[in-house]
Amino acid sequence: MKIERRKQRTAEVYTASLNDIMFFLLLFFLIISTLVTPATIQVLLPKSKTSEDVVVKKQINLTITADHKYYIEKDEIPFDKIEPQLSKIISKKRKTEEVIVLLHADKTLNLQDVVDVIDIGNKLKIKMILFTQKKG
After folding, report:
1. The whole model's pTM is what?
2. Which strand ranges, in their side-by-side order, compose the sheet holding 59-64?
3. In degrees, to the nearest 5, what angle opens at C-alpha 4 toward C-alphas 2 and 7?
4. I need a surface site. Which of 13, 78, 88, 105 has the fewest CB within 10 A?
5. Which domain does 70 fall in, by range?
6. What does the alpha-carbon distance between residue 100 and residue 19 come to, in Å, rounded to a whole number?
7. 76-123: per-residue pLDDT in tens?
8. Residue 94 maps to which CATH number?
């Protein structure tokens, strides 16, 4: 007597519809990400051959536009208020973390305008990084 074995069945998951779902999710996130624009102040940065991408978690953004407007983070302030405002921010942050000021200066500014702001940083003993764009 011959006993027939049942054919071994392999388990399969039908994934043809998952491709469509993944495509629609990808399309949705691409469209949403292009609609979201960060609220930043646009300045033309000078170019540098040795420029690198810098990511610093504990930072203060200081922006100088071509028309001599000064911004700390997103708040516009006059030049004579930069030092007190920075010292106020530093007094809050210095207890727990190192403070670095990221200086975004428009390339059309005179060098003296940038040096004046760097002098304020030196007076407050703050590390300042001047942002540039990579050539290319």
Report:
1. 0.58
2. 75-77, 70-72, 59-64, 100-105, 127-130
3. 165
4. 13
5. 47-134
6. 46
7. 999 999 999 988 887 876 555 777 889 999 989 888 988 999 999 899
8. 3.30.420.270
